[in-house]
Structures are given as C-alpha cells and as structure tokens.
Amino acid sequence: MTTYLLAGGGTAGHVNPLLALADRIKLHEPDAVVIALGTAEGLESRLVPLRGYELVTVARLPFPRRLNKYAFGFPAKYRKAVSEVRELIRSRGVDIVVGFGGYASAPAYDAAVAENVPFAIHEANALPGMANRRGSKKAAAVGVAFEGTPLKNAVLVGMPLRVEIENLVKGYDKASARKHFGLDESTVTVLVTGGSLGAKRINETIANSRHVLTAAGIQVLHIVGGRSELPEVHEANFVRISYCDNMELAIAAADVAVARAGAATVSEFSAVGLPAIYVPYPVGNGEQALNARSAVAAEAAIMVKDADFTPDYVASTIVPLVSDSKRIATMSASTALVAISDGAERMYRLVAGLKR
Q1: Beta-carbon neighbour count of residue 36 at 10 Å?
Q2: Could you confirm whether domain 3-161+341-352 is CATH 3.40.50.2000?
Q3: pLDDT at 228
Q4: What predicted TM-score, i.e. pTM, was given to this entire model?
C-alpha cells in the first residue's frame, strides 16, 4: 500500500488537476492512501473534502517580494511550515509527494527532500510559478501541461482532467446540456466565462453586446463569476449566472467559448474540441497568453488583448465567427493538434514510476 501526499491549491487551476490525479491513483490503487495538503483559504478547503479526500492545511505563506515586516518574519514561519509537513510525512508514512504549485507546494518539496522522500511536480502553466521553478531542481520527476514549459527534465503529460471532462471527450448530448440551462436546444451557443472569480472586461463587454448577439441569432451562456455585481438573467436566448458547479455541462452546451486563458480552461476546451476566443488576463507575468499559444498556432482558437475586447470587437469578429458554421467546424477539428485528453493517466504513470 502506497501513501501519497498531493500538495497544491489556491485556485481551481491547481485544485482540479490535484483531484484528477487523486482519482486516477484510487482507480489504479484502490488501497492507496491519498492525503491532500493545502491552505485553509484556498478553494481546496471546500473542493477536496467534497471529493472525499482528507485535507491537511499549512499556513498560507507567499514568498516575500519586498523587504518589509512580513519578509523579516517569513523565514521562521516557513521553517515552521516545513517542519509540520515533515512530521506529517513521518507520522503517516508518506511514500511519494506530488506538488501542483501554489502556497502548500513549496514547504512540501523541502520537507520531502529533508525526509528523503521522492517528489514529483506538475506545472499547469506554460510559464512556471516560483514554487515549481525552485522545486524542479531537486524533483525526481516533472510533468508539464504545455510543450516548451521551461523546467529541467520536463515531460509533457498534459493537464490531468477531471473525470467529468474526460467523459465529454467520449461524447455528449449538446441539446440536453442546453436544456439544463434553459437555453434553446438548437440555437448556436456561446459560452462566456472569466473563471470562478470572473473577469470584469469580459463581463462588461458581453453585457454591452447582448442585443447585438441576440439580433444575430446567437444565444449566450454567461458565467460572470463570484465577484461580479451583474444580476443573473434567465431568458430564452441569454442566461447569465454567477457560478456554475457543472462546468462540464456548460462546455457541452457551447459551440464557441469566450474566456480567460487559464491553463485548465485551455486544456479542457482543447480536449473536448471547443473553439475559443481567449482574452488573457492582462496583469501578471503573461502566462495566460503563453498557455493559449499552441491552440492559436493550430488555428483552434484566436486571441485578443484585454484592452481590445470591446463591443466593437464582438460585432466585427465574434458575430461573424460564430455565424460561420464551416469555420467553427474547422477550428474544432484543429483542437486535435494540441489536445491531450489523458493527462491524468500520463501524470499517474510518471508518479507511479517513483515507487521504491
């Protein structure tokens, strides 16, 4: 019996691949023990227990970016977190550690090294985060979601997808998915999402383009995210909701998507053959534009800067695209050039290879 410690969390982009690997481990090794390591503040505090896995938390400790009071106190707090994970590894007999980036991963990597336990890394973004860049130097195995991710000894495994998304790859009923949201079963449909927290520019532009889209015979499923103040709408050709617990149904309902370019979003859309217009998040280190790069190069998606995503862009570019069924079909077929639908299995094989 093998005991795995899976570390990561914060956002759905870290939590979902962690849970996908956990499910794959249990599929192959029903008697395996899977423990998740995260923070009390991240989405993992809700999603991990919901999936039936044990969650152990450590302090949320961002690496200091400037010299201030927090920076002076960071080393002691970080050593304490590493010590806690080391004790967890010893007391639970952890055999393998797997990190997905995020605040919980860094102390997990250092604890694994100190306890002489092999650890693997999965990097979801085309541009790695700090924890995984640092951890990859001593990792026994490194899996990445996108070709060209700059980590030493990286193996392309793709994104470990949730089983609900894997099931969509096998086929789905688009009409039933639309009916679930109260949409017309036969009208061309655009899914709009900015992620769990939402995207202000995308939300406002779609809200201001609603009548243009409707006039063109296009119906919209708009998921605005938890921070948006836009009211929910439930009409025959326009549905706006704050959050969606069944994203697999939202994806199944769509012919085209408009979205940020988070790693999980790009990987899931490509895997199921959904053409997309990506509007990368304009703040940060630019990893979202890199995430969408291969899908755009394969002509399975198009990319537009956040500042350029306006009602004029919707009218001049999105409406003609969505109205062109032949082009949509071509883009959908092109996703096969970049899609990896068995990322969970590939990552499991990489991790299982570390067994002593």
Answers
A1: 26
A2: yes
A3: 75
A4: 0.92
